[in-house]
Fold this protein.
Amino acid sequence: MGLLELNELSKEYRRGGTAFNAVNRANLSVDPGDFISIVGRSGSGKTTLLNMCAGLLIPTAGRVFFEGEDIHRLDDREASFLRNEKIGYVPQGQSLLSNFSVFDNVSIPWFLFRRDGDVEGRAFALLEKVGISHLAGSYPRELSGGEMRRVAIARALINEPRLLIADEPTGDLDIRTTAEIMGLFSRIAKGGTAVLIVTHELDTLNYGNKTYSMEAGTLLPHVA
Ligand SMILES: Nc1ncnc2c1ncn2[C@@H]1O[C@H](COP(=O)(O)OP(=O)(O)OP(=O)(O)O)[C@@H](O)[C@H]1O
Ligand SMILES: [Mg+2]
């Protein structure tokens, strides 16, 4: 069994009295070192899928296994620990805590569970990797959209996750910064962490080892 396994995963939503499957019986296997991209039109179910992979949203049917464990059967504490320790998540849109500095935003996940180690050194090294160490003392309101996105990426990596999930991580970045971030994700994957991202078609051509497309809730291997 892979690091992450989706088994016939579905999410049904209701809108105006009608039910529809935002995700429809998705199957996916993610191994350590994989760099998987998912492309698809707006509203096709990509964020819904990622949220279920991260244990943030309960599926209507099907299962999510992480290291062989059904993540929706864990109790609250076990699920929180799994998300904090093993899964780094870069959500779509703004997700930073506005009253905390960039440095604190990156470090916070480290402090949620008892840990030993040099969190300061790690946080600075990550900020350097994403190219914004000069902004360590700044606050989210003082950053551009792309800078905020890079803080969220550093934050997702602070606990050295086994799986990095990122929802349109380069959506508001220029071509060069996009290439840098995708290069960083490639290196992370080569280091053994699995990377699962939702992205734009063009971004994925030179990166990643597997591409899927999401079409009206159905996940399929992508044909270029
Ligand atoms: N809580 C909800 N209740 C009802 N419908 C929802 C809910 N959340 C999302 N949807 C609908 O489910 C579908 C999939 O949404 P989702 O956010 O997963 O799409 P997406 O592929 O991530 O889109 P985008 O590229 O715009 O981010 C959309 O039609 C959306 O309107
Ligand atoms: Mg989305």
